[in-house]
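Researcher: Can you fold this with nicotinamide-adenine-dinucleotide in place?
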Amino acid sequence: MSTPFQISRRSFLRRCAVTSALTGVPLWFVQRDLEALAQQAAPKLPSANDRINIAQIGCGGMGSGDAQGAASRTNVVAVCDVDESHAKGLATRLAKNGKTPDVYTDFRKMLQRDDIHALINSTPDHWHSLINIAAARAKKDVYGQKPLTLTIDEGHHVVKAIRDNKTVFQTGSQQRSDRRFRLACELVRNGRIGKLHTVHVFVPAGLVGGPFASSAAPASLNWDFWQGQTPAVDYVKERCHANFRWWFEYAAGPVSDWGAHHNDIARWAIGLDGPVAIEGKPLTTPVAGGYNTPSEFEATLTWGNGVKQIVRTTPDDTPYGGVIKKDGQRNGIKFEGTEGWIWVNRGNLDASKEEIYTTPLPESATHLEVSLDHLGNFLECIRTRKDPIAHAEVGHRSASIGHLIAIAIRSGKPLQWDPAKEVFVGENASVGNPYLVREMRKPYDYSFIA
Ligand SMILES: NC(=O)c1ccc[n+]([C@@H]2O[C@H](COP(=O)([O-])OP(=O)(O)OC[C@H]3O[C@@H](n4cnc5c(N)ncnc54)[C@H](O)[C@@H]3O)[C@@H](O)[C@H]2O)c1
C-alpha cells in the first residue's frame, strides 16, 4: 500500500508500533487511523505565499501557546490584548525574519483588516462570544477557546453568527483530536463495557482564596474593557489574568476549566445533546470577598437514555476506588457499564479487562470522526470549508453541560432540562431559566459589535 507520505508498508507498520508504544493506544487502533488517512488525498502543503494569515486575540497563558503553535505552521500577522504589555510581549516573542506581528488593543480595529483570514480567540470566557460573533461577521474563520460561551443564551447567538456567515469554527476542545479519548468513546459507543450506566467525571478542585484588596490597575491594562459585559468593580489583581476562572462573573470555576474538556468527552461517548435532569451542590464555602466559585462541588446529571453522569472535583488524596492513585493523576473520566469499565485521561487509558481495548472493533462498528491534530484540523477546514471536529454546535452543547451544572449549584435546586428546546422545565423551571442569560453591561453588549 502507499501512504500519504509514500512510505513502505514496513516503515508504516514501524511508525504505527512506535506511536502505539508511546501513547499506550493499541496497535490496531493506530493502524486503523493511519490507514484511513492514507486513503485521503495528501493535504496540499501551502507555499509561503498562500499561508493563512492569523490574528491572535488574548495574549495571556493560553493565547501565547496558541499563537506560538500557529506561528510554527502559518503566519501570525497581528496580536491583540486589552493589556498592551501582553500583546507587545507576545509580538516580540513571535518576531521572525525581521517581521513582528502588529499590535492592537481593540479587536474591532484589527478585524477591519482584509489580509487577516482567521483568528484565535484566547480571551477569558466572558469575552468569547462577542469576539467570535464579530469575527464571523467580518468573515474571519475562528479557533475559539473553550468553553464556547459564558451563558447558554450566548451559544444561540454564536451558532447563528457562525452559520449565517459560513464561518469555519473550531472550539478549543482539543481532547476531541486525541486518539486516546476517541478510542474510549468508540469502545463505549460500541458496547465494549456492556450497557453504559454511569460516567464519572473527575476535575481538579479550584482555588480557595480571599478576601482580596483592590488596587490601581496596571497602566498597560484597560480594566474597563477587560471587564466587558460583567458588572464594573474596582480592579482586584486576583480577578484578572489567569484567576478570572474562579469567579462566576467571568467563568464558572472548575466546571468551566477542566470540566469543559471532560464533559465534552463524556457527551461524545453518551452521544446525546444534553441531560434531562441536573442536581448539584457545593462541597466547600467560598471565602467572603474572595474567589466566589466553590473550589469543590458534586453534580449528578441524568441523560435521556438513563445514564447517570457524576461530576466531582478531586482534591489531593481522594481515593476513587484506586483508579486515580493507579493513574497518578487527579482528573479524567471513568465509564462504567454492565460488563466493565474504562478510565481515560490525557496520560492513560485503562479498563477492567485488557481485552476491552486490545481486541479490535469490527469493521461494522460505529466509527467516530478522526482528527489527530486539533489546530491542523482547523487549518485544513479553512481550505476545504468543512466543519472542524469541534464545530460551533459541538462547542455550544458541551459548554452547556458546565453551565447547567453551575446553575444547579448556584440555584440549589434540582432542575429538569429539555435538551431539544434548551429550557428548564418542571417544578423549578422558574428558578433555572433566569440563569440562561445575563444582563450585559453597556457598552459591552451586542451593540458593541454592531
Ligand atoms: N484548551 C485548553 O486546554 C485551555 C487551557 C487553558 C486555558 N484555556 C482557555 O483559554 C482562555 C484564556 O485562558 P488563559 O488562562 O490564557 O487566561 P489569561 O488571563 O492568561 O489570558 C487572557 C488574556 O486575554 C486578554 N483579554 C481579556 N479581554 C480581552 C479582550 N476583550 N480583547 C483582547 N484581549 C483580552 C487578557 O488581558 C489576557 O491577556 C480561557 O477561556 C480558558 O478557558 C484553554
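Model: Folded with nicotinamide-adenine-dinucleotide in place. The first strand starts at residue 53 and ends at 57.
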